[in-house]
């Protein structure tokens, strides 16, 4: 499968496009559904539980750097079409946007696998329009739902610059649980990985 990191110029162009309607100094909401729940890497003014409709959390993105390698890719979360997703919405002060968004783009848009979109989310204190990174199904790193044994085998094998893929999946499940968010499918996968993080199928 083709794999290429975006250039700094491509990431900058994507960022500028996402912020083309942003007014300087205006606060911005960012939606987190995976590692942003437990490692946002930015200061925020407010944090709310939030529901995004029309997409669901899934291990649908090959990871060849952070949680895998080109030779042995792992899987990380994306927002795939259909259903809904419970996550966290962060409000960033408008003055912080120029400082934090370039590093957010370096993190989330390193391969262009996501589509940055402004989408209404339901929160505990009313709706907000948040920046959401949804899965780009046209990207070669996208993978459709896998049978559970195959998914577990991929996760158990893979490790990248940020550590083992197993740790990433389990930590995400733990963070969601701590936030009061229930994701039954993820909890099942995480419980299997916690109970047996290493065993691979014989075939």
TrEMBL record:
Protein name: glutathione-specific gamma-glutamylcyclotransferase
GO annotation, cellular component aspect: cytoplasm
Upper lineage: Bacteria, Pseudomonadati, Pseudomonadota, Betaproteobacteria, Burkholderiales
A GO BP entry: glutathione catabolic process
PANTHER family assigned: CATION TRANSPORT PROTEIN CHAC-RELATED, GLUTATHIONE-SPECIFIC GAMMA-GLUTAMYLCYCLOTRANSFERASE 2
EC number(s) on file: 4.3.2.7
Domain of life of the organism encoding this protein: Bacteria
Enzyme class per UniProt: lyase
GO MF term (any one): transferase activity
Keywords for this protein: Lyase, Transferase
